[in-house]
Write a structure and sequence with these properties.
Helices cover 83% and strands 0% of the residues. It is mainly alpha-helical.
Length: 196
């Protein structure tokens, strides 16, 4: 049912926020306890609100490209001209979306680390990533590659059988935790640089 889906999704997001708290504690050499996994639930409402704003910003960034793409679909001129406009439209969807997602990716870390407000967390993420977009994009590409490699055994497990899938889900979960810790470390370094 829809209630179960929403509830389980919110629970998973709360645990993810707790993992961010664990990652930040590990990076700062603080004591880590099991209860920290549940320490992010008090910021769940702010996280959902910030995520809605985050995705709205990404959507607004993609509007010019979507408009160009729709224009190329519905206009009736030469095929070559239409395909060029289509390609430009696709690029104007992809490039701003990637740029904005890289700039704003640390809003959830600010929510947990500094318990900032919804808009303030997004603004602080934009501030600490200024001038580091290319490095962060390359770092994100490496992290994505690691996660994709961890999915290979999982995909093989699906082909072989369900019991193997359960066993092979562990590397996927570990790659998720690794990603949160790696991004937490980058957040820590960028945040440290931005403090005068």
């Amino acid at each position: 049912s829809i209630v179960f889906i929403i509830t389980s999704s919110l629970f998973n997001q709360g645990i993810s926020l707790g993992l961010i708290c664990v990652a930040l504690k590990l990076i700062n050499n603080n004591e880590v306890t099991f209860s920290l996994l549940f320490s992010g639930f008090h910021m769940l409402f702010q996280y959902v609100a910030a995520s809605i704003i985050y995705f709205f910003i990404l959507l607004v960034g993609a509007i010019p490209g979507a408009g160009m793409l729709l224009f190329s679909i519905y206009q009736g001129s030469a095929v070559n001209f239409s395909s060029i406009i289509s390609m430009l439209g696709i690029l104007l969807i992809i490039i701003p979306t990637i740029y904005l997602s890289v700039r704003l990716q640390f809003y959830n870390y600010f929510l947990i680390d500094q318990e900032c407000g919804v808009v303030e967390s997004i603004q602080k993420s934009a501030a600490i990533t200024m001038g580091h977009v290319l490095e962060l994009f390359i770092f994100g590409a490496y992290l994505s590659l690691i996660v994709l490699i961890s999915l290979i055994p999982f995909s093989i497990g699906i082909a072989i059988g369900t019991p193997l899938v359960i066993l092979l889900a562990v590397p996927v979960g570990l790659s998720f935790v690794f990603t949160i810790i790696a991004l937490g470390y980058v957040y820590f370094i960028l945040n440290k640089k931005s403090i005068p």
